[in-house]
Every structure is written in C-alpha cells, then in structure tokens.
Amino acid sequence: MLTNADIRRMARESLRGNWVQAIVACIIFNVVLLVVNLIPNVGPFLQLIIGGPLLFGIYLYFITLIRGGKPALADVFSGFPYFVSTFLLYLVMSIFIMLWTLLLIVPGVIATLKYSQAFFIMNDNPEIGAMEAIRQSKEMMEGHKTRLFMLYLSFIGWMLLCVVTAGIALIWVGPYLYAAMAAFYHDLKHRKDMYATTDFNSIPV
Q1: Which end of the chain, N or C, is less packed with Cβ atoms under 10 Å?
Q2: 96-129 pLDDT tens trace
Q3: How far apart are CA 71 and CA 62, in angstroms?
Q4: CB 117 within 8 A of CB 59
Q5: Which candidate, 188, 81, 83, places its Cα nearest to that of 140?
Q6: Helices vs strands, H then E, count in the chain
Q7: pLDDT higher than threshold 90 for residue 152
Q8: Phi and psi for 115 in degrees, rounded to 5?
C-alpha cells in the first residue's frame, strides 16, 4: 500500500510538465463557482445546481492526469452531460454531511471521508446512480479513513502558506491537492481490483 509520502510524490510526478494547464483548470473551476455564487439572491442555489457537474469534471481532469493521460481544459465541464446523476450525488452528499455535522463535528468529518471517493467512482462508472456511488465509496474507504485524513493533514503547512500569501499560494496548492486526492483513489481502486481478480483458491496453503 502506498504511503501518503508516495501519494504526494505521485501527485508531483503527474504534474511535472503539466502545471500550467492544471493551474488553469483549477482557476476555471473556482472562478465559475465564485461568479455563480456572487449572483444576488440565487447565487448559493445556482452553486448547488452546478457544483456536482463541476466536481465531476475537475475530478476527471486529475484522475486522467494521474493515470498518465492527457486531460483537456474542457474536461472541467465534462459532468454536464451527466447533469442529473452528478447533481443528485452532490445534493445527497451535502445533505448527509450536513446532517452528520449537526450531531457533532467528528461524525461530519467521518462522513466526509466516507463519501470522498464517490465522484471518482462515478467518473469510472457514469451510468451508476448517486446512492450507488456513495455506497461504493463507503465500502472502498473501509479501513482507509484515517489514512486519507492524515493525507489531508499533511497539507496543513501548504494551507498556512496560502494564508500567509493571501491566497496566492493556492494557485499551486490547489492542483497539488487535487492530484493527491486522485492518486489516493487510483491506489485504492488498483488494490480493490487486484483483490477482486485474485483467485484465492489457487494460492497454496
């Protein structure tokens, strides 16, 4: 199993030679959400509407990068052909996480970790529904929630740098974090697929 240091190294290697386009992809993603959110009266509602398709797109961009492909900036908008399923996934995840957070912060964090792979899973299986993507994410994250939490914590220094630089460092930290999240999913899925295809009856004991 890859360590978090391995995950971060994989993220950096995937970004080598691809930094500029990855930064532009993140800027497009964030600017669209920001502009929509600033629309008077309906901004937050519109953000809820388009948040799912945009998350699908930015996740597709970085998982393609991690897998050695050549993502395009247009991938950021690739979730809109799957508008219904991506919208429902974003909506259901938001409701579930909000409800768990109303109980206590810790259950909210755990729920966020459980559902963290759902958009990556939907990227690989666009035909599945929101609840199935969430179910598979919860199953995939069994025994790995602490590992992902520690990966997030390892970015605290970078986040502090973003604060110190008034957000300027986020230009580089954003793509790095998304690439690390994609690398984490890629490792989990690779191991799950290996386990699923292993014929344990053929292993001598």
Answers
A1: C
A2: 999 999 888 898 999 999 999 999 999 999 999 9
A3: 8
A4: no
A5: 188
A6: 10, 0
A7: yes
A8: -90, 0
Give the amino acid at 204: P
Q: Please name the residue that has the structure tokens 């945009």.
A: 54
Instruction: Look up residue 42 and give its two tokens.
Output: 């309906």
CA angle 115, 119, 123 (to 5 degrees): 145
What residue type is assigned to position 25 of the chain?
Answer: A
pLDDT tens-digit map of 10-53: 999 999 999 999 999 999 999 999 999 889 888 889 999 999 99
- State both tokens at 73: 């900036």
| CA contacts within 13 A on the Cβ side of 112 | 12
Smallest CA-to-CA distance from 11 within 163, 187, 157, 143 is with 187
